[in-house]
Structures are given as C-alpha cells and as structure tokens.
Description:
Blueprint: H1 3-16, H2 29-36, H3 40-52, E1 56-59, E2 63-66, H4 71-77, H5 79-86, H6 90-109, H7 114-125, H8 133-149, H9 154-177, H10 181-198, H11 201-226
Antiparallel strand pairs: 1-2
Helix pairs in contact: 1-3, 3-9, 5-11, 6-8, 6-9, 6-11, 7-10, 8-9, 10-11
Amino acid sequence: MAVTDEAILKIKNMILDGRLRPGDRLPPEKELSESLGLSRSSLREAVKALEIIRVLDVRRGDGTYVTSLEPQLLLEAMSFVVDLHEDSSVLELFAVRRILEPAAAALATGRATTSDVSRLREMLATIDGNTSVDGLVAHDLEFHQGIAELSGNGYLTSLLASLSGGMMRARVWRGLTEANAIERTLAEHRAILDALESGDAELVRARVTVHIAGVEDWLRRAASSTA
C-alpha cells in the first residue's frame, strides 16, 4: 500500500470509529502525524486527497475540519469516480488523447529546435521528489502543452488543451495516491524528450503513446479498486 493511501485509510478509520465526527477539527499536524505513526509529508498529502473528495475542509489560518459528510456532498465530489466506473467520461478523454497527442508529438519532432528541447529540459529540471502535487500537475500540463505547440498545428494544439480540463481531477488524484508518481512522470518525460532530441518521430510517437496508456491503465485499476 502506498504511504499516502495508508494515511488516507488511517484518517478515514478515525472518522468511521467516531474519534473524528462531522464538524470536528483535526488535531495539529505534528500531534496527528505522531499519533498515527505517519510522516508529516504523507499526512499533508492525505489531507489534500480527502479535501478533494470533500471529506475534509482545510480553512487557511484556522485549521482542518471534518465536513458535514452529507451523502449529496460526497457524491458530487466523487462524480469523476462514477465517470470511471461507467467508462463514459475520463477514460474516453484519455483514449482520445492517446490518439491525438502522439500524432502532435511526431509533428513536433520535425520542427523542434535545439533551443526548444533545452527549454523543455529546463522545465523538467524544476521538478524533483520534493515537488508538491500541485507543482507536478502544473508541470505535466505545461510539458505536454509545450510539445503540442511545437507541432505547428494550432487547431490540434487547442483541441488537446481543451481536453486537459476534463482530466485535471484525475491528474491530481493520481499524483496524490500513486506511489512514485513524480519519479515515474519525470522518467517518462525525459524519455520523450530524448526521443524528440534524436529526431526520431516514430520513437517519439511510441513513447508518448506508452506514457498516456500508462495513465489509462492506472485509471482503470483505480476504478476497479474503488468500485
């Protein structure tokens, strides 16, 4: 079990067994992390994940509270999981992305200059194992958009950008809950850049396809595990 998943489970158990009730304020971070046997970083990521699905309410400068836990509130926040179960929304968006983005990256290969590749490498260098989930998601969006723009096809670039909005919650959730999400993302982005720099359009196409297919696979497994 990933460390963040373990942290989420422990906080959830506190709510289920009554140690935390709707409206209760969570103990201070240091105290809670020690009592649960968790690092403060994993506890923070767990709190972010539970905030996304409206189990916790983080009030800046005040503290973190358990929400009302009303069914309608939770169902609304988990709508993207329902989409996964029905294979009608997020997975379909990723399938379209898997068709279009490798084509855009292949087009970019013939147009990318040394300066373009250097700029993308500098972007990669700003991300490491200490990067927050928000930082990782922002990097992921910027990296893929940067390659799409190099395709020289404005319509294709805009179409891929429009797809990104529907994938945002899935990207955030993956970053919060999948073990080694940052390291895996960076390794795959570096492999794509190496292929781009080599000028091999078919290799670029293949690596982008594998990269996106890996996310699709994670989404299917996430849907199955939460069904």
